[in-house]
Structures are given as C-alpha cells and as structure tokens.
Amino acid sequence: MSARPTPRTGTPSGGLSRVPYLPGLDGLRAIAVAGVMLYHAHHSWMPGGYLGVEVFFVISGYLITLLLIGEQERTGHIDLKGFWTRRFRRLLPAVMTMMALVAVYISVAYTITRQRTRGDFVAGAGYISNWYQIWVGQSYTASEAFVPLRHLWSLAVEEQFYLVWPLIMVAILARSSRRLPAVGMKLILGSVFITLVMAWLFVPGTVGSCSTEFQRGTWHLFGHCFQANDTLYLSSITRAGGLMLGAGFAMLWRPLAIMRGPLRDRGRQFDAMAGAALLVLLVLMYTMYLAEGGHWNPWLFRGGFLFTGLLTLVMIAAVTHQGAAAGRLLGNKVLLWIGTRSYGLYLYHWPVYQIIRKSAAVELSLPKIILAMLITVPITEASYRFIETPVRKNGFAATVGSLKQVPQKLMAATAVVALLAVTFLSLVVADPHCVGAQDCVQAAAAADDTTPVTDPVDTTPTSSVTPGVTELTTTTAPKVASKYIAIGESVMLGAESQLQKAGVLVQAKEGRGPEGVKNAVIKLRDAGDLGSESIVVIQVGTNAPLSQRDLDAIMNEMPAGITGVVFMTLHAPEIDYIPKNNQLIRGMTALYPNVSIIDWETEANNVKLCANDGHIHISCDPAAAKYYANLLLAVYGLPAIP
Predict the structure, then answer these.
(1) Which pLDDT value is given to residue 209?
(2) What does pTM read for this prediction?
(3) Helix, strand or coil for residue 145?
C-alpha cells in the first residue's frame, strides 16, 4: 500500500491551478466513448449510451477552464492566439482526415449520396454541423439513408465553446480573479437555469413534423420550420449546460490546491463516491432511452443531462484527487489507450458504421460490430500516430515541411492532394438535393421535378404549295396517353427496368417526396402522357411525413374522369412516421371512389429486402424486384413476369 502523497509547502511551479497529467480523466473518456459507440452500433443494447457525449462536455469544460486559469496564474495573461492554435492542432488534422476519407469513399463507391452529403462536409469543415442539422431537420434519431457526418454535431458544440469561452475567461479573470469560487457557483447555477429552460421548452408526447397537417412540437422562425426537441438536443445554447458545469467546477476544484486543504485526507471517501457515481451512470446508460416510438424521453430534458453532469463532477473530483485510488484504477493501460484515442475513435467509428449498414437507425449484429472495430481501431491508431501527434507536437507548417525532405513522401502527398481535389470537385458539381425530413418537406419542389415539360416543336410544314399542284395538307395526330403509368421513389426504381419492358411508363426518382409526385403528375398530364384512360400507380411517403393535404394535392392534379389511381403502402420498419403515412394512404379509398390500394407494407414480407438500408429497397435481390413489378402488372391487367 503506497503512502499518501505529502503536500508540498509553497506554491508549485506554475501555480495552484497548474494542470498535472491526470490519467483518470482519460479513463473517464474511455467509458464515455465506449458508451457512445455501443449506442450507435446497437442502441437497444445500451439505450442511454449517448450520455457519454454529456460526460465529454463536462470534462472539456473542466479541463479547458483549468488550463486557462493556470495560464493566467503562471504568465499573468491568456494568450488567445496560442490557445486557439493548440486547439486547432489538436482537432483539425483528424477531422479533416476523416472527412477526406469519407469524401473519397462517396465519390468512388457511393456516388448517389454526393448531393445529399455535400452540406454536411461544408458544415463539418466550419464546425457548425449542429446548426446545419437543426436547419435541415436532420434529426439525431432519424432513420435517414446515409449520414456519415451526423456525429460531428457534438464536436461543433465543443469547438464553438473553445472559440467563445477564452474570451469570456479573459473578462472573468480581469475582474474576478480573486473571487473565482463565487463565479464558479454562478456558472453551476447557470447550468441549472439551462436545464429549467429545456424542461419548459421540451414538448412531451407525440410530436409532429413540418408537414402542413400535424405540426405539434415545431417552431417557426423567419419562415423556416424547426423541430423543437431536436433543436434542444443539438443546439450549442441548450447543450452548454454540461460545459458550464465543468467550467464552474474548475473554479472550485483545482487538484493541486485541494492537496493543500482539509480535503487532502478524504481520498477514500471520494473513491466511494466515485464508485457509486460510476454505477449510477452505467445504470442510466442502460435505461435512459433517447426516443421510443416517436416520443422523446421527458426525463432526459427535465434534469437527465444535469444529473449526468453532476455524476461526472463526482468522478472528476475522485480521479483528480492525488490521495484517491480512482485515478489509478481508471488510468489503467486499457482505458488509458482508449481514452487517449477517444477523439479518433469517436470520429472514425460512425462513418465506418454507416458504410457497413448504409442507414443511421439499422442496428448492427455482433459480427458486424466486430468487423467495424477491426476497421475503426487500425484507422484510429494510424491517425493518432502519423497525423494527430506529429501536427500537435510540431505544428502544421513543420509537418508539411518534413514531407519535402523525402521525395517519396512528397510524391505521395501530391497524389493525395490531387485525389482530394478531384473528390471535392465531384461533390461540388453534384445536383442539389434535400437532406433532412424538414428540408425535404419544405423544399421538395426544388429537389424534384419542377421544370415544366412541353412537347417537342414540330418543325414539319403543315402544307406545301407548288404552282400547278393541288395543295396537300398534313396534320399531326393527337398524342395518345399511356395506358399504364407508375410514379414513385427509390423503392420503385428497383423494378424500373422490368416495368418498362412490360410497357409501363415509369417516373421514379430517388429521394422524391409528395411535392415531386404532384409535379410528375402535372408534367405527364400536360405532356399528354397521362389521360382519363390511364391507370396510375403511385408510391410516396418513404422520404418524408405525409399529410392529407399532400395526398389531396396529388389527386387534384389528375385528369378529369380518371378511373384508375392506385396508391401503394410503404414498408420501412425503422422509420417512425411510416405507420401514420400508411394510415393516410389506406384512408384514400374512403375519400376517393376511383382509388385502390396495393398493400406493399404486407407484401414486402414475402421477399428479401436490402438489409443494409433498413429493409426498405428491393434493388438487392432480382426476385424482390420481380415480385414488386408483378404486383403492379396485376393491377394493370398485364401478364406477370415469369
């Protein structure tokens, strides 16, 4: 048993606020990132694993504030340029490397997602991902097809804190350097105030969307619609509570100063408190779900974040106490390795998950989780050793300069730059596309078929007159409408070729919403392809919530007297608004006598769907595409595909 450290007399070099190396904090980071990664992989295994992000926020607020106080105490001022330079060296290399790798993958292997992810890259590079996701309605809980940069929202919150907080600390230290404990208490009370505001603004129960019918739980500002609970979860203002909690605690709990006071002999008590706090945190990670059945967890927004932060403070107090064993226990080699690489693990694990499953809400099986770790861990280690550490120690200029000294490295770097230039050019020139659910609802017209279609101009003369020859008049025969028409989204695209071979006019487009379907009806009708004798099959509602007004608008554009309109229900088990959409679709038969239904929600259970996108699409199996096509051909009265 080691003896209790004896506090030194006088002030240690660097002041009482000097930050010694604290391996226990890396152990806390390891627990936090493990919870987040497990939650992202299979959220039913650890429904509250996302709370690890709040643990990160509290630790960041504590350490950054302690560093700033220590610098002020040591040098008499805070070097803002130096602070921001160190932060950029620490953060930028890994995140830019991750985004570059994702961009190359998308441009080479998944080009269809270029336009959807372009905004994510811009927001990620500017550290505003959280505000971008709020703006487009890219909910943290949404089952969107491919969102490899969604996790950057939390890094954006931290980076915005790093930009603003040093300026605030300069003002605090200039006026209240002798009253830091009082300021710390005010910051902690500020965190409590943020919790009260979140509890007041939180919308419990069933919330709607920015569609025109059911908008409970949405806000409107400057003509734009926002999801209230998503905004509370993602915004820098509402998530500042954890950062303020950590910052306030740094003004009350300085590790070296504690060892000079009466608490220096309370190491065992702090160990017991930390053990209890860790146990409660793990219980929360296993029980504090984020959202179920479209309902957000009210306890999370009514004190759950604050309670998680307070538990983190207890553990910080123990692992930073030199007389406690918690720091040594949590600073063991395994947790230390994970903790020192927690930033890279967080950065790289989510894109790897997305590449494997292609959809945010699909739970990975154990073999796929193992595969993801076999990919993530080596990338993280390579990034840590060869990119993050050299830049952090030597700076950007010196690291780049070292490449010039070795011709092979210089050639390799030049090739990488050229590849990235081509990659990002492909992202820039990609067609625009809506992103999140709210963005698709509000901007569907811009993302779909809005350009009117006109028939080609017939330049053939209608008459030819030659002297002495009787005038012959030719007329163009009126266009005959297509008998069989199918209008839909990406699911229908999987059967496009089979339907076209059977004589069906197919208008299917990936990402299409109700506005796009309405525009397609208008184009086909005005071009003469859609007439009263046509039979139209429509599938819509996978990409965004529907309203009755959306469906009525589609019917209002149908040719007068049309007798055959068939709506298909939807099969997307991971998307929470699909049951309501299907209810509206089935209700169309009672409102419109000329409407019938193909129950794809039920029929899809008879085929093998794409497992990597939430069991939605039919493009993974030719048999599924044939089955889908034959359902439509039966409605048209056409022969089935053998």
Answers:
(1) 64
(2) 0.68
(3) coil
* Nearest CA-CA partner of 42 in 366, 363, 376, 372: 363
- Give the helix ranges, DSSP H, for 433-534: 437-442, 444-447, 490-493, 496-501, 514-526
Contact of 472 with 464, CB cutoff 8 Å = yes
Name the one residue in this structure whose structure tokens are 């309370």: 266
CATH architecture of 444-453+479-636: 3-Layer(aba) Sandwich (3.40)
Rounded distance between C-alpha atoms, residue 444 and residue 450, angstroms: 9
Structural tokens at position 586: 């089935």
Count of CB atoms within 10 A of residue 40's CB?
22
- d(C-alpha 276, C-alpha 384), whole Å: 33
C-alpha to C-alpha distance for 62 and 243, rounded to whole angstroms: 7
Per residue in 58-98, pLDDT tens?
999 999 999 999 888 888 889 999 999 999 888 988 998 89
CB-based burial of residue 406 (10 Å sphere; 0-12 exposed, 13-18 middle, 19+ buried)?
Answer: exposed
Rounded alpha-carbon distances, angstroms, from residue 370 to 352, 356, 424: 12, 11, 31
Place of tokens 């309405």: 518
Read off the tokens for 373.
Answer: 């770790």
**Among candidates 34, 58, 54, 57, which has minimal Cα distance to 46?**
34
Task: Output the six-digit token pair for 345.
Answer: 């693990």
Give dist(CA 602, CA 475) in Å, integer. 50
Report how far apart, in Å, the C-alpha atoms of 456 and of each of 17, 44, 527, 528, 529 are: 78, 56, 10, 12, 13
Instruction: Specify the domain boundaries for CATH 3.40.50.1110 within the chain.
Output: 444-453+479-636
pLDDT in tens, 414-448: 555 665 565 566 555 555 554 444 445 444 444 44
Distance CA 451, CA 454 (A): 10
DSSP string across 227-287: EHHHHHHH-TTTTHHHHHHHHHHHHH--HHHHTTSGGGG-HHHHHHHHHHHHHHHHHHHHH
